[in-house]
Amino acid sequence: MKSVGHDSLKTGRELKVDGKTYHYFSIPEAEKTIGDVSRLPVSLKVLLENVLRFEDARSYTQDDAKAIAGWLPAGSSTKEVPFKPSRILMQDFTGVPGVVDLAAMRDGIVDLKGDPEKVNPLVPVNLVIDHSVMVDVYGTKDALQKNITIEFDRNGERYAFLRWGQEAFKNFSVVPPDTGICHQVNLEYIAQVAWTAEVGGKEYVYPDTLFGTDSHTTMVNGLGVLGWGVGGIEAEAAMLGQPIAMLIPDVIGFKLTGKLPEGATATDLVLTVTQMLRKKGVVGKFVEFFGPALDHLPVADRATIANMAPEYGATCGFFPVDKLTLDYLHETGRDAHRLKLVEEYYRAQGMFRTPEMADPVFTDTLELDLSSVVPSISGPKRPQDRVVLTDATSAFEKELTAGLGVPANDIDKKASVAGTNYEIGHGDVVIAAITSCTNTSNPAVLIAAGLVARKARALGLTPKPWVKTSLAPGSQVVTDYLNRANLTEDLDAMGFNTVGYGCTTCIGNSGPIADNIVDAIEGNKLVAVSVLSGNRNFEGRISPNVRANYLASPPLVVAYSLLGTMRQDITTAQIGTSKDGKPVYLKDIWPSNKEIADLMGSAITREQFIERYAKASIGPQEWQDLKVATGSQTYAWDGKSTYVQDPPYFKGMGVEPAAGAGDVKGARILALLGDNITTDHISPAGSIKKDSPAGKYLIEHGVEPKDFNSYGSRRGNDRIMVRGTFANIRIKNEMLPGTEGGLSKHFPDGKEGFIYDVAMQYKAEGTPLVVFGGKEYGMGSSRDWAAKGTLLLGIKAVIAESFERIHRSNLVGMGVLPLLFKEGTTRKTLNLKGDEVIDIVGLETITPRMDVTLVITRADGTKDEVQLLCRIDTLDEVEYYRHGGILQYVLRGMLEAA
């Protein structure tokens, strides 16, 4: 916190804890002026405190505080308020381009005769390197070390760049690779719930809040820390001191009652919650959980639910601070003073939940009795598509023909696997992965997985030979308690050796499947299956060779590795044969709730967290041995690098923005896209194919295909990323019916080619581009490259039926227009083919949410005009767009402040 406001509401107060004095801005004192907020949702009280702390009669005003206090749950607010988070959390896929942009901003400010030291984060930034490790080696005791070695061979250049950033920038720290995933490290270590900072010689205390450059930042809401995922662009602006304007959100109250029944897990609970909230419709809204079940719902379960807010579409899924929050802080090694400070501060603010408190007033509510939760999985393409476990096989059989396009007379096809004595067919599980995100913050489900492995091992069972098994814990503490519970050996025996402490399979870093299995899948067009304990299963995400992906609890992942197929009902089928010849069923290897609880009680200790996180900054030997150039204010770019390049955003930038952007004239359509286009479809992710534009670029620059690494690992190189934008193998451009992949057509000649090649041809001709989409355009992970790549392809506007919140914001942040069809109009009602010429008229003077005119000139010369809604939503966003993007706006502001 760089500064505090003038406090014209006079809410400044003191709080003494253990004899230490803290200053804070009192919500109860503010009530004397702004009115009663006792039943305001706690998540909105956090926003209110932010206004009170920074209130200065300019950017933050009394009217902002009164607007939050007078929030009307009966209807959506049209009032926007500013928000500055306490800190920023990054992972390395989004963090590398973030540091690249900071380094480029230093070059940019030097070019404009400014001081490069002005470019520093103004709030604490923690970057956790967790997205680069791949499952190259698995099922062996040395899998972890071998994967670490390969990881550093691939990523040493990127990692050295991040080490440079840690030395060059103030207020910026890096958690080394193979420590844990950012969300679990955040939950277990970084988060403090009550944040403190010294300003003007005084120690201030305020709510711990954050933006994260990963959509699952919401996981920390389970700890009562308000935060959500934003694009890297938005995060960079926030770390550079820019308040983010946001409409006061609707808050949906989700009442939880009862207790989970025997056999149900936190995964089953979150899949049920996700399905309910997707059906309810909570995109762009806060969800706040309340009800008597919170009296006994542990933070690990809350974090599992909060983690999947992006999957149910909400900005966040928030749990208020209460006694169980304090218990978790103690269990994970926070000091006694911090616990006292958290409790006393939140009680003083009227934000500490107790069973006696009246329920808040919400926009709307829904309710779930936890005792009604049953074992479930979700898939095969979306996390909200929950299937009751007993119905999983019948649902998959229907999906095979209806959704996955397998002819009915072909569903029982079998294919031999070269060099083996087995065959595989449609529905066989080829990946079974216990992944870090969502589930490995939760010891109950990991202990359960270990117990399933123990019981299976005792009976002599092993996974099917075609299944690639892996365990990627979310933190090293997981290994400690699995070791203490004597479960590691059992998991290893089932092939679930630890492969790395990172995101792995859930983000597409599942690594290669054996060549002979891939040959059988691809040669026979089989629908192979993955089962993972993650939160994302979008088409084409997990592996290019796997078309059906299911989310499941860790113990179910182990069980499915034994069964090896989705074509049999796991609840009734024989999973295997014991060493004494008896059939084994799921019920024979499933642990009881008591078994799990007893083992958790003896295996997990506070000391494990203290000891592990005392070494959090050390990293493996490979990290310690990196050679890093230090001492320079600006980065020495290497023109030959294929990992890190100086991006073009600030090249030729003037001290003042150019005159108004004006109308878009004579544009061509690059893509016509359908509903549910995700950032996975838009942004480069996963493996790089050698015949793709990015693959050709790497080969031209001397990189062998075996060393391509992933798109995510090369996000610091705009030359590669722009070539991979819209290049997902499953994306369907309606301009080329019947095709998949990143293809387009150039007009007027009608020549087909990769989207990148077509876009570059248009760019050489000076032709602007537009993209059309359907509903929920840009859903999924918060990927800044989905917006950056869109800009660099020459796309001036994206026109869709609806936008996902983060991606819409990112488009504006990169200077790309997000435009919305009016009700009743779509690309289909307009009968667009892709050969039309597009004009967008009315952009000379932009105001928030104004109407603009779309002019369509068809190939035969006829014209149509329709009205669109410009989704530049706030005055701040108008400024970002006027400056050509949010980073240009911030950089010019730094020059003025110099």
From TrEMBL:
Q: Which cofactor does it need?
A: [4Fe-4S] cluster
Gene3D superfamilies reported for this sequence: 6.10.190.10, Aconitase, domain 3, Aconitase, domain 4
Aconitase/3-isopropylmalate dehydratase large subunit alpha/beta/alpha domain ranges (all copies): 79-564
This protein's pathway reads: Carbohydrate metabolism; tricarboxylic acid cycle; isocitrate from oxaloacetate: step 2/2; Organic acid metabolism; propanoate degradation
Catalytic activity, EC: 4.2.1.3
Q: Does the keyword Nuclease apply?
A: no
Domain of life of the native organism: Bacteria
InterPro entries, alphabetized: AcnA_IRP_Swivel, Acnase/IPM_dHydase_lsu_aba_1/3, Acoase/IPM_deHydtase_lsu_aba, Aconitase/3IPM_dehydase_swvl, Aconitase/IRP2, Aconitase_4Fe-4S_BS, Aconitase_4Fe-4S_dom, AconitaseA/IPMdHydase_ssu_swvl
Catalysed reaction equations from the record = (2S,3R)-3-hydroxybutane-1,2,3-tricarboxylate = 2-methyl-cis-aconitate + H2O; citrate = D-threo-isocitrate
Concerning Pfam families, the annotation shows: Aconitase, Aconitase_C
UniProt keyword NAD, yes or no: no
An annotated GO BP: tricarboxylic acid cycle
What keyword terms does UniProt attach to this protein?
4Fe-4S, Iron, Iron-sulfur, Lyase, Metal-binding, RNA-binding, Tricarboxylic acid cycle
One GO term in the molecular function aspect is: 4 iron, 4 sulfur cluster binding
Q: Where is the Aconitase A/isopropylmalate dehydratase small subunit swivel domain?
A: 696-823
Q: How does it assemble?
A: Monomer.
Q: Which function does this protein serve?
A: Involved in the catabolism of short chain fatty acids (SCFA) via the tricarboxylic acid (TCA)(acetyl degradation route) and probably the 2-methylcitrate cycle I (propionate degradation route). Catalyzes the reversible isomerization of citrate to isocitrate via cis-aconitate. Could catalyze the hydration of 2-methyl-cis-aconitate to yield (2R,3S)-2-methylisocitrate. The apo form of AcnA functions as a RNA-binding regulatory protein.
Name the family the entry cites. Belongs to the aconitase/IPM isomerase family.
By what name is this protein known? Aconitate hydratase
